[in-house]
Amino acid sequence: MARSAEQARQIDSLATAPPPPDSPFAAYGLPEFAGLPPQTAPPEPRPILELEDEEYEDELDALSDWVDDFLVRVYGAEVTTAAPWCEQWQEHADVVAWLHALWLAYQQHKDTEAGLSGLFVWHRDFLTHAMATVRAAGGPLSACMTDPDRPAHRLLPGPRPSNRTTTATEEHEDHEETGEPIQADG
Asked: Can you give the residue range of the structural domain that contains 117?
């Protein structure tokens, strides 16, 4: 009978809400320890092309520092027609996106939580692929510098919107001008 009563008390204590955070016992079963400030999660990274204005400029400045001071210095290799580069790479939106993703992966994989093989994984899974894509002979920088003694920069035009997108945009603009409702197809 005494055991049953003790088990009932234990079940009741487990079913009750945890003690308030200022309790000296708050740390039991919780990830933070009593007396230490609660750990806040780092901000969730966002793709650089989703950022705007000052937030974009700040992120681009930090990315540029990493690319110029580390990435190109260590992994830049020779500039050739097979591996072009552009001193104005920040003006190539696709290159900015690739290098930003590479930088985020670098930050994650150099962290101690990534373990001793973290940077190897970054080299194998991220660096090689990103640099091969960005610096491909037919890639986004192919119209730019292919000889370090002749700096060049040219943005190549991208593909135009599909006919479906163009037609839908024109129809929407026509309806806005006339004030007619847009009819759904189907």
From this structure: 53-134
